[in-house]
Amino acid sequence: MKDLVQNSTAALPHQADATFLMDAGIETTLIFHDRLDLPHFAAFTLLESAEGTAVLRRYYQRHLDIALAGGLGFVLESATWRASSDWGALLGYDAAALRRINLRAVALLHEIRAAAGNLLEDLSVFDEYRGKELGDRRSVAWSLSFRASDRTLRDEEVDKAIARVLKRLEERLDVHQRR
Q1: What is the β-pairing status of strands 73-75 and 20-22?
Q2: pLDDT tens digits, one per residue of 12-63
């Protein structure tokens, strides 16, 4: 948990001179568009399985695609607004289970930031390519901006941060750098 909080202290979107997209009602979309059964309107239950987590990733990806097409940044919101003690009790979740599921939801949103460390100031997707030669994969171009508030960064520091991001993306999300 400490790592997640430390890696979340970079400039927030409202502090930037840019326009950002947010998601559009995760539970409503999953129920009415994807036809999923979410007990008590709770999307956080999807985090209990790999299949459910994949559903959430696809949901976020649809919004990221919209942001990409419009040249916008994207602000992620976790799927946990119902992961509280009152709603959790209705779904059979005790305090320990709710804590675990909330941490899992936040971890899903912090894969890249956690890998980059607290030097990552901004992350944005600026290009995407899909083509027959890629099969079901796609090529996405990311822009990472690094800054330290107390000093000038050395090339080696930024290179190491980028290497950590690439390694984490490959290990956890099967994302590979184009060569």
Answers
A1: parallel
A2: 555 666 677 787 788 999 999 989 999 999 998 998 888 888 888 888 878 8
Q: Which domains does the chain have, with CATH numbers?
A: 2-109 (no CATH), 119-173 (3.30.70.380)
DSSP for the chain, written as a single string: -HHHHHTT-SPPGGGSSS-EEE---HHHIIIIIS----GGG-GGGGGGSHHHHHHHHHHHHHHHHHHHHHT-EEE---S-TT-SHHHHHHTT--HHHHHHHHHHHHHHHTHHHHHH-TTEEEEEEEEEE--GGGTT--EEEEEEEE--SSSPPPHHHHHHHHHHHHHHHHHHH------
CA distance 39 to 90: 9
| pTM given for the model | 0.56
